[in-house]
Amino acid sequence: MSVAFVLVALGSLMRWVPATLALYLGTAVLACGLTVPNVLLPSIIRRDFPSRIGPMTSMYTTLMAGAAGVASFLALPLAIDVGWGWRVTAASTGLLAAIAALAWLPLTRVSQQASARPAVQNPLWRSSTAWWVALFFATQTLTFYSVVAWLVPVLTSKHLTPAVSGAFLGGFSVVGIASSLLAPTLAARLRSQSAIAAAFGGIQVVGVVGLASANDMTAGFFALVFGMGAAGSFAVAFALFGLRAPNHRMSSQLSGMSQTVGYGAAAVGPILFGYFHDLFGNWRVLLGALVVLAVASIVLGTLAGRPKFVPAGVTGVDHPEEIHVR
Q1: What gap in Å lies between CA 164 and CA 224, rounded to an integer?
Q2: Residues 192, 66: Cα–Cα separation, whole Å
């Protein structure tokens, strides 16, 4: 983990260099560093806090959302009002990454027993439960990054000013903090997470249908409703990385598989929606896709939330994905 945060710090500092190539390389290095804690933190929670997966996931997802909101709030004042400019502002995040790298050093543990363990064939990619979790997570990442990329122009097309539209984008993240706190804790107390996943998916449907059909400030209000549902679904998806895995090793692998699928979809989705806007001159494709994703979130969340563990490598069970959670 410390090495990962060193990469984040290095990538942030590279964006300080006044060269376009340094900007892109720094962003790539930073992104590589961020993938490690994204994948490993759910498994660390599963390993060190097996009886507190819900509260710890709530803390993790809430701090993640809150930090992103604070960064968005401070970026323009630091760059413009303080006079740092965008390069120094972007590079300043490297300081936090360096602090995190130092904080993780005392927590580093090397297990010789684990390193000597023989490799086994990974059965996750053949597990229906793992695929439901991965696809459920993919709907959340695709939804979130598409909204972050295009909510402001969508709202301006509905007769809101850019400043007000930007405020609603910030509100989209802020209102989700309550959902991020509540969802994993509730999910961990339930034997099946299907109902809570479907409930937050239903909130998404209400929000996005209202956003698509309303104008003026009403559209902004429904964007906030949409944000509450999206944040709750996102947090439930993260909780499932621990709740659907029989041990922390499988939690790490399930997290890695799900985030590969999810962030792969999120990488191309916003670009495609922008292309369709240029092609048709409106946001109907994006809004229609968000409605479909919200409905898919209900279906996939219901399937992913069923009380089944993903397979744990070599077992004595013919169909380990059918093992039910006790």
Answers
A1: 13
A2: 28
Query: Cα angle at 198 between 180 and 142, to 5 degrees?
Result: 65
Query: How large is the average pLDDT for residues 99-121?
Result: 62
Q: What is the largest CA-CA distance in the chain?
A: 64
> What's the pLDDT at 118?
47
Would you say domain 2-109+128-304 falls under CATH 1.20.1250.20? yes
For residue 4, what are its two tokens?
């990962």
Nearest in space to 45 (alpha carbons), one of 197, 230, 194, 185:
185
pLDDT band at residue 199 under the 50/70/90 scheme: very high
Domain ranges of the chain: 2-109+128-304
> How far apart, in whole angstroms, are the C-alpha atoms of residue 193 and residue 186?
9
Q: Given a cut of 50, is residue 116 above it in pLDDT?
A: no
pLDDT in tens, 34-49: 777 777 787 788 788 8
Residues in the chain: 326
The interaxial angle of helices 194-213 and 216-243, nearest 10 deg, is 160
3-state secondary structure (DSSP) of residue 308: strand
**Token code pair at residue 218:** 């009403």
